[in-house]
C-alpha cells in the first residue's frame, strides 16, 4: 500500500512544491513506525513460505475439507453387507418377548379377576348371612359334544337317549351345575347354507356352542383348543369334558367320577394309552410329524383316548392363555396330551370311560354299576351309532339304577349271589353252585399241624335261592358249626395225613370296573383253596389285603417301566417300594418283568427287557432278597418260528439273540421261563381243520398225533405246544431251564365269528386240564416234569378291549357266582371221566398250523395268578364226618 501512495505523491509534487514533499516524509515515517510496532506486539517476523510449508498447508486444507481432522456431521456412513439372518433373529426375539409379556399380563389379569370374584363372593355371602360350604365354582362340569355339519342324525340319537332336552336341560344346569352343548364352528363361507341349518337347529333345541373356527376333519386339534378356551371363558366350572358324538355317556356315573377329584387342582382324566407313532402315510391316524418322537417305532407319551376325556379348570385356563403358542399335532388327543408335558398334572386312568358296547354292559343289570362312557373299540365310537344308540342306551344307560356304590355289596342271605358268614370255628367252606350245595372245601390259613385244637375261622360260602327248600338249608348249615368245632382236632389229624394232590394257578384279572374289593375276594380264594397269586402289577391294595393270608404272590412290572428300571438306582427304588415294604407279611415269591414284550415288535422295548431284569435282580441281591424272590418274564407262543412237529420247535430267528440272553439269565439265577399257551386260538383260527376234541383233551383213541421225528404221541394240543417250546429252548442249549405256563384258558362267550367260545367248552377245557394236572403227568417229551399251570382267569373282565371272548375268560362273574359249574373237585377229576363220552369230532385227526405258531398267540391280560391246592381225599372225609357228627348230635 505504501508503493501506491508514493506514486500518487510523485505525480502531485510536480504541482505542489515543498509542502507536499514534507508531508510524504511524515507519512513514510509513520508507516515504518507502525510496522515495527506490529512486529514487536505480534512477536513474529514474516518469512517467505517454502515449498514444503505450502504442501503441508494444502494437505491440511484437504483434510479439513474431507473431514479427516474434523468430520462433518452430514458425511455418508460406510456401507456394509445387509445381514438378514440377524434381522430375522432379532425380530423373533422381540416377538417372543412380547408373547411372554402378553402371557404374563393375561395370567395376572386372570388372577386379579379371580381375586376380585372371590372378594365379591365373600362380600355377598356376608351380606346375606350365608356361609359357603366350599369354594368350588357353581358348575360341576361343562361337556362339549364335538359334532359336524353332516351329523344331524347322530345329534338326534343323542337327544333321544342320554342328553336331556328343553326344560330338563335347563333344570340340569340349574340344579346340578352341568352344562351340555354340541360344539361346532362355521363353514368356510360364514352365513352359508350349512351355517343356516345349524342356526335353525340351535333355535329349536338351544343346545349348541358355536366356535370361531372353520370346520374340517383335519382341524380337530384346533377345534378342541378353541372349545376349551371358549368354554373356560364362558362358564366357570370345575371340569371341562370333550366327547365325540358317537359315544354313549352316563351322566350320573360321570358326575360321581368327577366328584372324587374336586379337591385336585390339575387333573387330566380319561382312558390313558401310549400307542405307537404311525409314521407311514395312508394309514389311519398317521402322524406327519412322527420324527419329533424319536426313532421310527417309538411310542407316544401318555395321553387319554380321544373319545372322551376331562380336564380341570386350571388346565382349561392354561390352554386358553397359551392357545397361540401351543403346538397342534395331527391327532387331537395327542395334541392335548402334549400340552400338559412338563406341567404338574395328575393323569387319572379311569377305565369306566371306555367301556365296550353290548354285551359288555350286561353286567350293569346285575351290579347296578353303569359305565361312564361306552363305545366300540373296533371303530373308535359306536359303530352305526344312529341305528344302535338306542340299543346301547337300554343296556348301558343309567336307567333306574342311578349311581350306586362301586364296591361289591352283600345283600342278605337269601337273594345274594355269595353270602359270607365269618364265624370263629373250623376252617370249612360250604360252596353251593347253582341251586344245590356241592361240597365242603378246606381253606386253612396255615398248614395244619397235629395237636392244634381248632382252625382259625369258619366261612360258609352259599348260593341260595329264595325257595322253601333252600331256606331250610341255612339253619342246617349253621347247626353244623358247633359240631365241626368239636371234631376239629380229628379233622386236623386226617388232613395232615392226606397229601396235597395238585397246585394250580389262577389269573386274577383286574381290567374291569365292577370287580369286588380285594378284601372281598379273599374269602373266595380261600374257599377254592388258592395258595398262589400272580399279579401283572404291584397293586398295594391287593398286597395289603392279603397280608398274613399265606398266599404266595408273583408281582408284575409293566412294560412301560422297562426303560426306567434298567437304571439300577430306579430298580432299587422300585423293589423297596413295591416288594420289600410288603415283606414278610405278604409272601412275594417272584417278580414278572414285562409281559409278552418280544412279540410287540418294539425294538426299543425289547432291548430294555433283559437289562431291566438284571437291574431288578441286582436290587434284590443288594437287599438280600434274591434267595426269596425270583425274577422272570412271560412270553406268548408268537416267539416260535416253528411249532410242528413239536420236536422241531424253534424260536424266531430275529429273537434268538435276545432269548439266548434271557435263558442265560434264567439259568444263572434259577428262575422259570414263562409261556402263555392257548389252544383255543389255534381252534378259533381254523375250526374246520383243527379238531375240537384234540384241543379239549378229549381226542378219541386212534386219533392221536404222532411226531414224525421223535415218534412221541400227543392226545392234546396243550402238550404239543409246551413241547414245541421245550424243543426251542433245548436248541439254544438250555435244557435244564424250568418252563412254566403263566396263562391258559378258554372263553365262555364270544362273537359270532369266534368258534367254540361256549360255557360247555370252557368247562371241558379247564376241567380236563385240572384232571391232567392232578395226574401229575408231564408232557410226552418231559414226562417226569410236573406242569406248573395258571388258569386264566378268576373273573370276567368287562373293560378289556377286543372281541367278546377277551372279556369272558373268567371262572366267576364279578358277583362271585360261577360262570359254569367247574366245581374245583380235583379228586373227582382224578377218579372219573369229567366229560363223559366224547362227541363226534369235526375231523378224524388234529390239524396243525404248519411251521408257524400264529394260532397259539395269547390274549393280553392284566391278571393275577392264584393257585389252588385242593386236598382230594380230605373233601370226602370232611363231608362224611360232619354228617356223622350231625346224626350223633341229634
From TrEMBL:
Its EC number is 3.2.1.39. Keywords: Glycosidase, Glycosyltransferase, Golgi apparatus, Hydrolase, Manganese, Membrane, Signal, Signal-anchor, Transferase, Transmembrane, Transmembrane helix. GO terms for cellular component: Golgi membrane. Its cofactor is Mn(2+). One of its GO terms (molecular function) is glucan endo-1,3-beta-D-glucosidase activity. It is a single-pass type II membrane protein. It is found in: Golgi apparatus membrane. The chain crosses the membrane at residues 26-46. It catalyses: Hydrolysis of (1->3)-beta-D-glucosidic linkages in (1->3)-beta-D-glucans. Pathway: Protein modification; protein glycosylation. Residues 23-115 form the DUF4094 domain. One of its GO terms (biological process) is carbohydrate metabolic process. Belongs to the glycosyltransferase 31 family. Belongs to the glycosyl hydrolase 17 family. This is glucan endo-1,3-beta-D-glucosidase. The lineage of its organism: Eukaryota, Viridiplantae, Streptophyta, Embryophyta, Tracheophyta.
Amino acid at each position: 500500500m505504501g508503493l501506491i501512495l508514493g506514486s500518487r505523491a510523485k505525480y502531485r509534487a510536480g504541482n505542489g512544491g515543498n509542502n507536499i514533499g514534507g508531508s510524504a516524509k511524515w507519512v513514510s515515517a509513520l508507516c515504518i513506525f507502525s510496522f515495527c510496532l506490529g512486529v514487536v506486539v505480534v512477536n513474529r517476523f514474516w518469512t517467505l513460505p517454502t515449498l514444503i510449508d505450502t504442501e503441508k498447508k494444502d494437505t491440511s486444507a484437504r483434510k479439513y475439507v474431507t473431514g479427516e481432522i474434523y468430520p462433518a456431521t452430514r458425511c455418508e456412513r460406510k456401507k456394509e453387507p445387509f445381514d438378514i439372518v440377524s434381522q430375522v433373529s432379532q425380530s423373533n426375539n422381540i416377538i417372543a418377548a412380547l408373547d411372554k409379556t402378553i402371557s404374563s399380563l393375561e395370567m395376572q389379569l386372570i388372577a386379579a379377576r379371580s381375586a376380585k370374584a372371590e372378594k365379591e363372593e365373600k362380600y355377598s355371602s356376608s351380606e346375606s348371612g350365608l356361609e359357603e360350604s366350599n369354594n368350588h365354582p357353581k358348575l360341576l362340569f361343562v361337556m362339549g359334544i364335538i359334532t359336524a355339519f353332516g351329523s344331524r342324525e347322530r345329534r338326534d340319537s343323542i337327544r333321544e337317549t342320554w342328553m336331556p332336552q328343553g326344560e330338563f336341560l335347563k333344570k340340569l344346569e340349574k340344579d346340578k351345575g352341568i352344562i351340555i352343548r354340541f360344539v361346532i364352528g362355521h363353514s368356510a363361507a360364514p352365513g352359508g347354507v350349512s351355517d343356516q341349518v345349524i342356526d335353525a337347529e340351535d333355535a329349536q333345541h338351544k343346545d349348541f356352542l358355536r366356535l370361531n373356527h372353520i370346520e374340517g376333519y383335519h382341524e380337530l386339534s384346533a377345534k378342541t383348543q378353541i372349545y376349551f378356551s371358549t368354554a373356560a371363558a364362558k362358564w366357570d366350572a370345575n371340569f371341562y369334558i370333550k366327547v365325540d358324538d358317537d359315544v354313549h355317556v352316563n351322566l350320573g356315573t360321570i358326575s360321581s367320577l368327577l366328584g372324587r377329584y374336586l379337591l385336585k387342582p390339575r387333573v387330566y382324566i380319561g382312558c390313558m394309552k401310549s400307542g405307537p407313532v404311525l409314521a407311514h402315510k395312508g394309514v389311519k391316524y398317521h402322524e406327519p410329524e412322527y420324527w419329533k418322537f424319536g426313532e421310527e417305532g417309538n411310542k407316544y407319551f401318555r395321553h387319554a383316548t380321544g373319545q372322551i376325556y376331562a380336564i380341570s379348570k386350571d388346565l382349561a385356563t392354561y390352554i386358553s392363555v397359551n392357545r397361540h403358542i401351543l403346538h397342534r399335532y395331527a391327532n387331537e388327543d395327542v395334541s392335548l396330551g402334549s400340552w400338559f408335558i412338563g406341567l404338574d398334572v395328575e393323569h387319572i386312568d379311569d377305565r369306566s370311560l371306555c367301556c365296550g358296547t353290548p354285551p359288555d354292559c350286561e353286567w350293569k343289570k346285575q351290579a347296578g354299576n353303569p359305565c361312564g362312557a361306552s363305545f366300540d373299540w373296533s371303530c373308535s365310537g359306536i359303530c352305526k351309532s344312529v341305528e344302535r344308540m338306542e340299543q346301547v342306551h337300554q343296556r348301558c344307560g343309567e336307567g333306574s339304577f342311578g349311581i350306586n356304590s362301586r364296591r361289591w355289596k352283600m345283600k342278605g342271605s337269601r337273594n345274594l349271589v355269595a353270602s359270607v358268614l365269618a364265624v370263629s370255628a373250623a376252617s370249612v367252606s360250604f360252596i353251593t353252585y347253582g341251586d344245590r350245595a356241592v361240597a365242603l372245601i378246606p381253606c386253612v390259613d396255615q398248614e395244619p399241624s397235629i395237636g392244634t385244637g381248632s382252625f382259625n375261622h369258619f366261612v360258609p360260602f352259599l348260593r341260595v335261592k329264595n325257595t322253601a327248600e333252600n331256606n331250610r338249608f341255612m339253619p342246617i348249615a349253621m347247626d353244623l358249626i358247633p359240631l365241626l368245632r368239636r371234631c376239629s382236632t380229628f379233622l386236623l389229624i386226617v388232613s395232615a395225613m392226606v397229601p396235597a394232590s395238585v397246585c394250580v394257578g389262577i389269573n386274577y384279572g383286574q381290567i374291569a370296573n365292577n370287580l369286588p374289593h380285594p378284601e372281598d375276594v379273599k374269602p373266595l380264594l380261600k374257599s377254592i383253596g388258592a395258595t398262589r397269586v400272580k399279579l401283572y402289577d404291584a397293586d398295594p391294595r391287593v398286597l395289603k389285603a392279603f397280608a398274613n393270608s399265606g398266599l404266595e404272590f408273583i408281582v408284575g412290572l409293566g412294560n412301560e417301566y422297562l426303560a426306567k428300571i434298567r437304571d439300577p438306582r430306579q430298580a432299587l427304588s422300585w423293589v423297596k417300594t413295591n416288594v420289600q415294604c410288603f415283606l414278610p407279611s405278604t409272601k412275594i415269591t417272584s417278580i414278572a418283568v414285562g409281559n409278552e414284550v418280544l412279540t410287540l415288535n418294539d425294538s426299543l422295548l425289547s432291548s430294555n427287557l433283559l437289562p431291566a431284569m438284571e437291574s431288578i435282580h441286582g436290587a434284590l441281591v443288594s437287599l438280600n432278597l434274591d434267595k426269596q424272590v425270583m425274577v422272570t418274564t412271560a412270553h406268548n407262543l408268537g416267539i416260535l418260528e416253528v411249532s410242528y412237529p413239536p420236536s422241531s420247535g424253534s424260536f424266531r430267528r430275529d429273537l434268538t439273540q435276545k432269548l439266548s440272553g434271557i435263558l442265560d439269565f434264567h439259568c444263572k439265577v434259577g428262575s422259570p421261563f414263562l409261556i402263555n399257551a392257548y389252544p383255543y386260538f389255534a381252534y378259533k383260527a381254523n375250526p374246520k381243520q383243527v379238531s375240537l376234541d384234540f384241543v379239549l383233551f378229549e381226542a378219541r383213541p386212534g386219533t392221536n398225533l404222532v411226531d414224525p421225528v421223535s415218534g412221541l404221541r400227543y392226545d392234546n394240543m396243550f402238550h404239543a405246544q409246551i413241547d414245541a417250546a421245550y424243543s426251542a429252548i433245548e436248541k439254544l442249549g438250555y435244557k435244564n431251564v424250568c418252563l412254566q405256563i403263566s396263562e391258559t384258558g378258554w372263553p365262555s362267550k364270544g362273537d359270532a365269528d369266534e368258534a367254540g367260545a361256549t360255557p360247555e367248552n370252557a368247562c371241558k377245557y379247564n376241567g380236563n386240564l385240572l384232571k391232567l394236572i392232578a395226574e401229575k403227568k408231564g408232557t410226552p417229551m418231559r414226562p417226569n416234569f410236573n406242569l406248573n399251570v395258571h388258569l386264566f382267569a378268576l373273573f370276567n373282565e368287562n373293560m378289556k378291549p377286543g372281541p367278546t371272548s377277551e372279556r369272558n375268560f373268567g371262572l366267576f362273574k364279578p358277583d362271585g357266582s360261577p360262570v359254569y359249574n367247574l366245581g374245583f373237585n380235583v379228586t373227582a377229576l382224578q377218579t372219573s371221566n369229567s366229560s363223559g363220552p366224547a362227541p363226534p369230532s369235526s375231523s378224524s385227526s388234529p390239524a396243525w398250523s404248519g411251521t408257524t405258531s400264529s394260532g397259539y398267540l395269547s390274549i393280553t391280560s392284566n391278571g393275577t395268578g392264584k393257585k389252588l391246592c385242593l386236598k382230594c381225599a380230605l373233601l370226602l372225609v370232611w363231608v362224611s364226618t360232619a354228617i356223622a357228627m350231625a346224626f350223633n348230635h341229634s
